[in-house]
């Protein structure tokens, strides 16, 4: 299946236009000022993906870094090769590499406005994975839900710490 072209790094910003053949996904949650340092630390490292249940690369996300994310489902380990396309203090974005079940890009960003956003543009990587499109979308939706729960946990921790003072 030919790979549709998309602008690398496009998930760094709101998805105004999604390239033909790809599906855009976005989930956001406002982060109060007290929780922003903790959330910023998470989104600038692989720790965020680790808390979402993935095995993560040992090297810190920085542009050009390649690694493998992995997750077990039903006892099967799915390895997902990735390459970081951009990284900064407010988050990072990575593209999938050959061998990943999904073709596209995902980012985790804490915006200047204090809103955490997970974004992706993607489609199944091969015709074999295309047969499992509904399953892949459901799994992606669940992972994005995990991201929101991770941020909400940090918000609760920060709120509790503020109230304890």
UniProtKB/TrEMBL annotation:
It comes from the Bacteria. Pfam families: DUF1990. Residues 23-149 form the DUF1990 domain. This is DUF1990 domain-containing protein.
